[in-house]
Amino acid sequence: MSAAISAAFDSGNIRVAGQEEDRFDLEIVADHLSDFYQWFHFRLTGAAGRPVTLRILNAGESAYPDGWPGYSACVSSDRDAWTRVPTDYADGILTIRHTPETDNVWFAYFAPYSMERHHDLVATIAGLPGVAYESLGRTLDGQEMDYLRIGDGPLQIWLYARQHPGETMAEWWMEGALERLTDEHDPVARALRDKATFHIVPNMNPDGSRRGHLRTNAAGVNLNREWHEPSPERSPEVLHVRAKMDETGVDFAMDVHGDEAIPYVFIAGFEGIPNWTDRQGALYHRFRDTLARRSPDFQTARGYQAAEPGKANLSMSTNQLANRFGAVAMTLEMPFKDNEDLPDAVHGWSPERSIQLARDCLGTLYEMIDDLKR
């Protein structure tokens, strides 16, 4: 059987540029109407027991070429368990080497979170006691903007993920958060539901997710640069979600992401917003430091450089929400590479670690939730 590669499926992305027996030359396809690309997801068939070489020729011109050194690709034969395989980067080419045990194997930039799994998650959680579902509107491709409300306490907590669709670890995190928040036997979840109302958007960018994009929606727009002035033509996803936030108010917000280049877990805040208050800053730092105490996977020494006073970019959601509502807002970043503070040679950063981090974030929130009251 001759080996073949395909990507015509939910979140698939690759183009075959050439093949010589079991060596493939590949190219990642750019997001529609955009120059961004880095996400790949494809299927290899017919190569059981044979060493295969996969060369991504345009890796050097990708959105974040600094993300390739030290990176290992993800592989699965059942689309459930994902491990890392030997991967090298040199002269702008990413080379993946693998000898598959079966004639069906999938490769991805990170373990995918398909729109089908998203629908399964929403259906499961929406059917549980105490959970309310609403579609906030539709995307440019006509998909629903799924929203879940949990709890009935006075504090308004917003959790939203995957503005950048290729950052699939963000929705794995969401799965962990939703599972804990709806666990009737979890005392932390019970207390959180009593003290707060949780507003959750598990996937901010369904169109980009299904299309196999890295960073943009169906119009080629980076949603995390639209929060100052979203529009139905460019960014209906942000428009719908921000309108709901205006309706509910926001006391605490977490925007969940993945970072291509930095091999650590960290959060970014809202330094530099015009309406900054010391109270907001103190609560943000308390959350950060408490999470570092609770989770060995989290650290505070490395991350993004903070904006100078008055220089915050209000088109980004964390800055916009902190400035607009006086909220304690933050961006959580997880790595595509492994976490160098606690490496795992087999799995690297993984769906399971993303899920566990969500549980630790909710535990951290519980420790400080009473102080969020104004």
Automatic annotation (TrEMBL):
The active site is at E333. It comes from the Bacteria. GO terms for biological process: proteolysis. Residues 111-369 form the Peptidase M14 domain. InterPro entries: Cytosolic_carboxypeptidase (IPR050821), Pepdidase_M14_N (IPR040626), Peptidase_M14 (IPR000834). Its cofactor is Zn(2+). GO terms for molecular function: metallocarboxypeptidase activity; zinc ion binding. CDD domains: M14_PaCCP-like. Belongs to the peptidase M14 family. This is Peptidase M14 domain-containing protein. It comes from Sphingomonas oleivorans.
